[in-house]
Amino acid sequence: MATISNNPAITVDISSAVKPEDMYQVILWNDDHNEAFFVVRCLMQVFNHDSPLAIKIMLEANNNGKAIAEVEGAESAKLHGEQMQSFGLTVTVEKI
């Protein structure tokens, strides 16, 4: 049992401490059928990105074939991936 104690009368068991959540990245892939403005609007709506960040992500996907739209916990990443796909965008969700 791992313990932390600054005071010999107080002992705290940290073996059952909350472990950090696994993180996932939502990857936006470039495509030839969605207009840039539409992609930016989707990024702003789904991830609540501001316009400059959404434009940066869109341009990265356009120029490099893909871009990381967001890094977040599993549940949020899955939900956001599904929302982006519902707009006709190509995204994948990958564990980091």
Oligomeric grouping of the chains: single chain
- The portion of residues forming beta strands comes to 25-35%
CATH architecture annotation name: 2-Layer Sandwich
Q: Which residues form runs of ≥5 with pLDDT under 50?
A: none
How far apart the termini lie comes to 29 Å
Q: For the record, what CATH class applies?
A: Alpha Beta
CATH homologous superfamily assignment: Ribosomal protein L7/L12, C-terminal domain/Adaptor protein ClpS
Structural class: alpha+beta
Read across the widest sheet, the strand sequence of neighbours is: 4-3-5
Global geometry: elongated
- Using only CA atoms, what is the Rg? 20 Å
State the major sheet: 3 strands, antiparallel
Would you tell me the overall average pLDDT?
92
In total, the number of domains comes to 1
Output the helix-strand order: EEEHHEHE
Number of helices: 3
> What is the name of the CATH topology?
Ribosomal Protein L30, Chain: A
User: Could you give the count of β-strands?
Assistant: 5
Structure description:
By secondary structure, the chain is an alpha+beta fold. The chain has a single domain (20-95), classed as 2-Layer Sandwich (Ribosomal Protein L30, Chain: A), CATH 3.30.1390.10. The chain has three helices and five strands; from the N terminus they run βββααβαβ. The protein has helices at residues 36-47, 51-64, 74-86, and strands at 3-4, 12-13, 23-29, 66-73, 91-95. Strands 4-3-5 form a three-stranded antiparallel sheet. A two-stranded antiparallel sheet has the order 1-2. α1 (36-47) crosses α2. The chain is elongated, with a radius of gyration of 20 Å. The two termini are 29 Å apart. The model has no long low-confidence stretch (mean pLDDT 92).
